[in-house]
Design brief:
The structure holds two protein chains of two kinds.
Chain A (H helix, E strand, L loop, with lengths): L2 H6 L1 H5 L5 H13 L1 H19 L10 H47 L16 H19 L19 H6 L3 H17 L23 H6 L4
Helix pairs in contact in A: 3-4, 6-8
Chain B lengths: L7 H12 L3 H23 L2 H17 L10 H22 L13 H9 L2 H15 L3 H12 L4 H8 L3 H37 L1
Helix pairs in contact in B: 1-2, 2-3, 2-4, 3-4, 4-8, 6-9, 7-9, 8-9
The chains are: A mainly alpha, B mainly alpha.
């Protein structure tokens, strides 16, 4: 082993990661080489001094008490901040809820709801109309069902959720308008008889309100 | 006061109690770690008041985010990581506005005082030279040397504290040793010899 090889092993030797055979090799070189012996001795002594030397300063005796007082102050400050945020958040949330409620009501009022009035609507693709009808139907169904998270109407390939769809797919414009009016009227009078096989059956004591036959009869084709 | 190292299980229980705002547990946790953390930080910044300030800051930050701490790790590792980060920030700030450091010989504790009275001039000179050499290292190299030798941590734990790869920690340690040897070589070679010659002449 020469000096270059020996120096490459110094770190591993100091970290105690050298195999016993290499420790022996290094020791043999150390006995022969004064330069490496001195260098290694200096590194060993430095490490030893760092390990055993005592600190000339120590943390203050009241450090723990001062720190505990700080922790208490910090936690009080945190509680104060949370309270301040709550003071702001509660009125803001209330305002947002009121705003939503008010605009929600106004928005509902903008729908053309007068039965018998002709609604001028641009021609709509059959598939779009179908989705629209099913969406309204699903909303109606959701309002009156026990299964509020039923979102099967979003699936375009889903089987007809209501009797309206079969007429929508291939209907002409007048039939579509009639369908829409029927739907709007049903919104006023109550839900339609939908096939909701996926939802649990309603309580027999509180049956779904069925649209009266009179209402259907009164509708006239536009 | 000699601190008994916490077992992992005891430490875990202590942290659970601190999370439930147990003041006694908080005190025990602080007492278990303050001396080692302070020693490390003081060696890094060499200013007593600043070291206490950093120590306090590190504890407060650790307690503030204790809910995010995973008990799979050692609390000391986490605390030292925070302490080291705060230290680096202070050292960076100090570069722009240098402040006084504890370069003077500080009043030693009774035990250290007794040791220093017993040691020879050569030993005192060696100690002074070694610590001066450590102070001349870069902050990451100094941190690695202090954690390795003073805190007796392995490269893996040091890499977690400094948030560096283990290979980088080894590289820092190697370079630090090389620098220390370079700094100490002339002192060990000449000054020790001159000092010895002077004493022999005086005798």
């Amino acid at each position: 082993m020469n000096c270059t090889q020996a120096r490459q092993l110094f770190d591993a030797y100091l970290d105690g990661e050298l195999s016993s055979s290499l420790v022996t090799e290094l020791s043999a070189h150390r006995v022969r080489c004064a330069g490496c012996r001195r260098e290694l001795a200096l590194l060993e002594v430095t490490g030893r001094v760092l390990q055993i030397d005592q600190e000339p300063v120590q943390v203050g005796g009241d450090f723990t008490d001062r720190l505990l007082a700080c922790v208490e102050t910090e936690s009080n400050r945190w509680i104060h901040q949370v309270r301040r945020r709550l003071y702001l958040a509660v009125p803001l949330t209330a305002a947002a809820v009121i705003a939503l409620a008010v605009f929600g009501v106004f928005d509902r009022g903008t729908h053309p709801r007068v039965a018998g009035m002709k609604v001028e609507r641009p021609p709509m693709p059959a598939s779009h109309h179908s989705l629209d009808s099913r969406a309204v139907d699903a909303v109606l169904g959701t309002l009156n069902s026990d299964c509020p998270n039923d979102i099967s109407w979003l699936d375009e390939n889903a089987p007809a959720a209501s009797g309206l769809q079969s007429t929508d797919l291939n209907a002409d414009q007048s039939t579509q308008d009639l369908t829409l009016l029927k739907m709007l009227q049903l919104m006023d009078n109550g839900p339609s008889t939908n096939d909701r096989s996926s939802c649990p059956p309603h309580d027999a004591a509180t049956p779904l309100r069925q649209p009266s036959r009179d209402t259907d009869d009164k509708l006239e084709p536009l | 006061m000699e601190q008994v190292a916490l077992t992992r299980e005891h430490e875990r229980q202590l942290i659970q109690r601190v999370r439930k705002s147990d003041k006694a547990a908080l005190r025990e946790l602080i007492d278990q770690h303050k001396d080692r953390l302070f020693a490390f930080i003081w060696r890094m910044v060499r200013d007593h008041h600043e070291a206490e300030d950093i120590c306090q800051d590190a504890f407060l930050k650790a307690f503030a985010s204790l809910d995010t701490f995973s008990c799979d790790f050692r609390f000391s590792t986490w605390l030292f990581t925070i302490g080291y980060r705060v230290c680096l920030n202070r050292l960076r700030r100090r570069k722009s506005a240098p402040s006084a450091t504890d370069n003077l010989v500080l009043p030693a504790t009774s035990e250290a005082d007794a040791t220093s009275r017993l040691e020879s001039e050569d030993a005192a000179m060696l100690r002074g030279a070694v610590w001066s050499a450590v102070d001349r290292l870069s902050p990451p190299q100094r941190a690695v040397v202090l954690l390795f030798y003073k805190s007796a941590m392995g490269c893996q734990e040091i890499s977690e504290i400094l948030q560096l790869p283990s290979a980088t920690v080894k590289s820092h340690l190697h370079r630090a040793r090389t620098k220390l040897r370079e700094f100490l070589e002339p002192i060990a070679g000449q000054e020790f010899e001159n000092n010895r010659n002077q004493r022999q002449e005086a005798v």
